[in-house]
Amino acid sequence: xxxxxxxxxxxxxxxxxxxxxxxxxxxxxxxxxxxxxxxxxxxxxxxxxxxxxxxxxxxxxxxxxxxxxxxxxxxxxxxxxxxxxxxxxxxxxxxxxxxxxxxxxxxxxxxxxxxxxxxxxxxxxxxxxxxxxx
Length: 134
Description:
Strand content: under 5%
Structural class: mainly alpha
Shape: elongated
Distance between the termini: 64 Å
Number of helices: 5
Order of helices and strands: HHHHH
Largest sheet: none
């Protein structure tokens, strides 16, 4: 007996999977990054250094990196690493305004250590919606 033809279904891509929500941290449990920041053997940072102006952040990091006898690399590298570490650990919780300040602090740090400035990423030409329609 011949089989009946069944209508073929259109295949679609599977829905993207969502990451499972991480379980709530127990009271008293700590993040490793906090431990590193507070007890790092690399450099001793001044209090609330990352809440200042870009120039003040860069000067403080430079001062701390040059004074430290426990760092394992050059002062510039240590200072830039600490700044990047802070920025990365803040992650998505960091407002755009603070992220901008930290990027400016990196530029200031490069200037203080007489390094080449990081080239700016080419931006897209922005046009108003009226220009796009004409």
